[in-house]
Amino acid sequence: MTASPEKADPEPKELEELEIRLLVEAVHAQYGYDFAGYVPSTLTRRIREAAHAEGLPTITSLTNRVLHDPVAFERLLANLLMQVTSMFRNPAFFAAFRSKVVPFLQTFPFVRIWVAGCSTGEELYSLAILLEEEDLMRRSRIYATDMSQAALKQAATGIMPLDRMKSYTNNYQAAGGTRSFSDYYTARYGHARMNASLTTNVFFAAHNLATDSSFNVFHVVMCRNVLIYFDRLLQDRAIGIFGDSLMRHGVLALGEAESLRFSKHANDFEALDSRRRIYRKVS
Amino acid sequence: MDGKLIVIGGSSGGFTAARRLLGDLPTDLAAAVVVVLHVHPNVESEGLAIALGSRCSLPVVAAEDKEPLLAGKVIVASPDYHLLIEPGRVVLSTDTAVAYARPSLDVCFESAADAYAERTLGVVLSGFGRDGAAGMAAIKRRSGYAIVQDPATAAAGEMPRSVCELTTVDEVLPLDEIAPRLVTLCGHEPGGLTLDPKKEMERGMS
User: What is the radius of gyration, based on Cα positions, of chain A?
Assistant: First the structure.
């Protein structure tokens, strides 16, 4: 993200809002991605940056370009979906997951977990490492989904920037890691690659929370820092899908500053650890 | 919410300055308040809010996604998220850091300018770097009000100074004059206290 470029006369607000509406509609009609339910401010910011990155003066000229150039659309899509997370982000969450969710999972012969909105895989690999250390990996199946094919491809490679490994090591340790973080990756050609064994039981698939439905039933749904980009209606849609996708007493894990507080589905869940945003389906 | 919004930002020395400023605000302040500080990503957001609000008589809470903006309530940006302002609420993002900062003052202030325009009051306190300069410029372009802590007496003057270099600020004030100025500009909420601070501080399951 960059600071917005200096403008002498800011574009009238209503005009910009119209241009964004038209772009969203065009993208939906032409490419099938529906951004209508996304939070306006973050969407606006990303669209402005995309236009700026393309060297275009208006959002309408960006719409013109992406409609006629699918490769330009892929660039826009990458911009609209891009977010930057870390392995073991908010280590206290993973520590709480270890102490409060793992014992529940250990009572089952087979464990199914859905990582919804897995992006480039940081949450996924963190979870895989945790399950491995708790001796749950061999009886677990993880479904990692995202609406971005590019992100899924990246996640499947397990490639992470080498310069982040030090902070990831700190996070891993704070999360209660029982081994050495360096056991889990190899460094070569200036990047780190997570061990392929971590994804032996992982299935990658495209899934769009705005348009798709529940596809299986899970013990755990992890969806951390994805709902922040969804406005109220879409957020409720997603949480409804998660509720439909959880077994009785199944666990929903959200990002550290997310909550079910403003959701119409709040009463379908009770808190296992409200501070760490770990909830359990009540029915 | 069609009231006023005060957005406060800082970096090095900004925590102490913000805590002092918040301590000087009255409970019936007729403005919502948002504080953005550069802190390490693994700092606990709740602990930060409690520490910041230790001398403040208004409720000071860690930002949750989609949290409502209310007059007389202080929302503190949670570490490792950007905080954006929309009419009546804050939203969070994990987009890339801006000049290594997440939360970024610029991201917050620019969105505040979009959402609240002339009803925005921006305050930049002590800090290193230039985060907040572009954001304050955006606030000024939308006819908002810009106050910076006097660089001469701030623990770190670079941040407030860079604001002055990029845009025309309305006032440069020593720290202890900022809160009284904000009160003069925003006024008091008619009918006194509008929020129950204890209820606002409650978090957890709905």
Answer: 20
CA distance B123 to B113: 13
Per the structure block, which two tokens stand in for B75?
A: 């929302």
Q: Which helix (H) or strand (E) holds A193?
A: strand A191-194
Dist CA A233 CA B14 (whole Å): 37
If you write DSSP's letter for every residue of A50-76 in order, what string do you get?
A: HHHHTT-SSHHHHHHHHHH-HHHHHHH
From CA B121, how far away is CA B31, in angstroms rounded? 10
Distance CA A252, CA A266 (A): 12
Counting Cβ atoms within 10 Å, is residue B59 exposed (0-12), middle (13-18) or buried (19+)?
A: buried
Instruction: Profile chain A (283 residues) by mean pLDDT over runs of 10 residues.
Output: 52 90 97 95 96 97 98 95 93 97 97 97 98 97 96 95 95 97 94 96 96 97 97 97 97 97 94 97 89
Q: What is the pLDDT of residue A3?
A: 52
Q: Tell me how close the Cα of B162 comes to any Cα of chain A, in angstroms.
A: 14
The single-letter code of the amino acid at A149 is Q
Residues of B with CB under 8 A from a CB of A: 41-42, 44-46, 62-66, 78, 80-82, 84-86, 91-98, 104, 106-107, 110-111, 114-115, 134-135, 137-138, 141-142, 203-206
Q: Give the pLDDT confidence of B93-124 residue by residue, as tens digits.
A: 999 999 899 999 999 999 999 999 999 999 99
Output phi, psi for B83, to 5 deg. -115, 125
A55-59, B89-93, B191-195: segment of lowest average pLDDT: B191-195
Distances (CA, A) of B92 to A282, B107, B201: 28, 11, 19
- Selecting from B64, B91, B203 the residue whose C-beta is nearest the C-beta of A41 gives B91
What is the full DSSP assignment across B46-74?
A: HHHHHHHTTT-SS-EEE--TTPBP-TT-E
Residue B91: strand pairing partners: B84
Reported as a single tens digit per residue, the pLDDT across B1-45 is 469 999 999 999 999 999 999 999 999 999 999 999 999 998 999
- pTM metric for this prediction: 0.93
Chain A residues lying within 8 Å of B90, measured CB to CB: none
Reference A194, options A228, A147, A162, A171; nearest CA is A162
Asked if the Cβ–Cβ distance from B82 to A1 is below 8 Å, we say yes
The residue written with tokens 């994805």 in the block is A226
A254 bridge partner residues: A223
SS3 A187: strand
